[in-house]
């Protein structure tokens, strides 16, 4: 009987041993499982390793365009300002416009000059076939002018404490057209800012003598064909500089 009890005890101990080993093994595996489930810290090197190939292709094309712009455009050309140019030029890198300022007999004159709208001879030839050219010749005979490059100008003339005149102009080679003329009042309160002021008639609807008088008015204040022809060349060069600057910012973004 004693032998039977001893054998039973040995069998019980031997059957419990695998369970003990299994439980110890599970306890040892739990830290490993927790470590595997824990999120790995972000690595910039790993992000760069999986950079899409399309980004590399885009970067290559941008670099090629930068080189082409550097070789072909007058991005580094410095336009010599004529001695008779009456305005001070404020040209900030990265902006689409430049600002001209001067004073004239107590008036403050500010001119905002925007990028030119260019028309080249090649573009005109590409857009026309022989029939179109014949039609254009007929239009020229009727007095209609062919398209030319232009610069938009906004001229503001103000006096201390009073209203200001605002001219929106289009400058062609050797010619300045006044598109609109408006009188801007100084706002006296928040309610005035919400009101829509009367802008006056279309400039072309004014009496011809009045139109000529306003052209002379601007001419005396420095808005002349000589001024706008210089600005045309200046803005073409600025456009080249800004395009190259824009491409460089694109390249830096894609490289990140």
TrEMBL record:
Residues 115-152 are annotated as: Disordered. Pfam families: MAM33. Residues 122-141 have a biased composition (Acidic residues). GO terms for cellular component: mitochondrial matrix. This is Mitochondrial glycoprotein family protein. The lineage of its organism: Eukaryota, Viridiplantae, Streptophyta, Embryophyta, Tracheophyta.
